[in-house]
């Protein structure tokens, strides 16, 4: 039996990591809940965001926190371009076509990443001296604490945007009923463009944050896509609060699992949670099945 101090440290580390998982999953949940497409390239958008932060840090010495904002802007523009150039032609034409397009895009991004950036794992350094803040028997490491706080701010900012801005309200209206939104004068095509931009921007932000904690390679996209799926299923599609709770639960579950069973089972834990929740409560812990944003 591991000592209590170690278990507490693992729990805290899992909670702090879960915040980043929630950011990644929120982008996937938004796109699925509003556009009704499964973005299979979401994990590879995360990979691009991570490499933006890594390259800015390695080549120009720019802190990854600033690199994260650059990644957000670039991925937002990439998401909007993706919707205008590719997905606009296939969204609404059935579930298969967007999946095929996005699966192909994921493979292309992974191959380009391997060719251009190589297969070696790379990471960034947040640059804060010292190990962290001691809180009783628990150490809150600076990288995990800072990335968690930034992740929560991003989630709350996205929630506030959806709740209190005209564009956010148009996005929510479109998620509830696209045809009714059109009758009310909402440009649903523009809503889709903005939604995919926000979804990919959140993936890019999550990637930049993860680059401060873990090594990144061009092959991490599928793994983080699976984690994002697990969080969305756990929290419920369309629920911002559920996504945050789902991310925290997944982070804790992964860390406890690696403590007792070894570090090679992280993805197995994510996939197991994904399957169990689908079977037991397919609408998730907070989902209502209606696709409404909270």
Automatic annotation (TrEMBL):
<keyword id="KW-0472">Membrane</keyword>
<dbReference type="InterPro" id="IPR052157">
    <property type="entry name" value="BCAA_transport_permease"/>
</dbReference>
<feature type="transmembrane region" description="Helical">
    <location>
        <begin position="145"/>
        <end position="162"/>
    </location>
</feature>
<protein>
    <submittedName>
        <fullName>Branched-chain amino acid ABC transporter permease</fullName>
    </submittedName>
</protein>
<comment type="similarity">
    <text>Belongs to the binding-protein-dependent transport system permease family. LivHM subfamily.</text>
</comment>
<feature type="transmembrane region" description="Helical">
    <location>
        <begin position="99"/>
        <end position="117"/>
    </location>
</feature>
<dbReference type="Pfam" id="PF02653">
    <property type="entry name" value="BPD_transp_2"/>
</dbReference>
<keyword id="KW-0812">Transmembrane</keyword>
<keyword id="KW-0813">Transport</keyword>
<keyword id="KW-1133">Transmembrane helix</keyword>
<keyword id="KW-0614">Plasmid</keyword>
<keyword id="KW-1003">Cell membrane</keyword>
<feature type="transmembrane region" description="Helical">
    <location>
        <begin position="68"/>
        <end position="87"/>
    </location>
</feature>
<keyword id="KW-0029">Amino-acid transport</keyword>
<dbReference type="GO" id="GO:0006865">
    <property type="term" value="P:amino acid transport"/>
</dbReference>
<dbReference type="InterPro" id="IPR001851">
    <property type="entry name" value="ABC_transp_permease"/>
</dbReference>
<feature type="transmembrane region" description="Helical">
    <location>
        <begin position="228"/>
        <end position="252"/>
    </location>
</feature>
<feature type="transmembrane region" description="Helical">
    <location>
        <begin position="259"/>
        <end position="280"/>
    </location>
</feature>
<dbReference type="GO" id="GO:0005886">
    <property type="term" value="C:plasma membrane"/>
</dbReference>
<feature type="transmembrane region" description="Helical">
    <location>
        <begin position="44"/>
        <end position="62"/>
    </location>
</feature>
<feature type="transmembrane region" description="Helical">
    <location>
        <begin position="6"/>
        <end position="32"/>
    </location>
</feature>
<feature type="transmembrane region" description="Helical">
    <location>
        <begin position="191"/>
        <end position="216"/>
    </location>
</feature>
<dbReference type="GO" id="GO:0022857">
    <property type="term" value="F:transmembrane transporter activity"/>
</dbReference>
